[in-house]
Amino acid sequence: KIKVQLRNLLKLPKGRTLDLRIGEAEAGIQSTIRPTWSVPSELVGNPCLLVKADEKRAVCSVGAMLITDEVLNAAGKSSGRRTISSAGIESIRWMLKDEPLPDISS
Q1: Cβ within 8 Å of residue 55, ≥6 positions away
Q2: What is the pTM of this model?
């Protein structure tokens, strides 16, 4: 739901293989309510918008980064998904950081 709402808010089309298209480039969108993001293998080598919501504090953050092996932890045993490492989180380029959650009820 967050992916679709963000794509609509930005007025960007869905990509052929990833979540959105910006000009000729495609990018993924990952969201979390946890300390880090779980990233599927198809995003490695691609830019990604990262959305984080903290409902208790009523804040959200939006950042971007290129997903590479260097910013990811080792793969999980069952899903093959990888989380962004602590060092990777430090390299996120934040566009919004701990801003009040928007009202997206409409």
Answers
A1: 33, 101
A2: 0.89
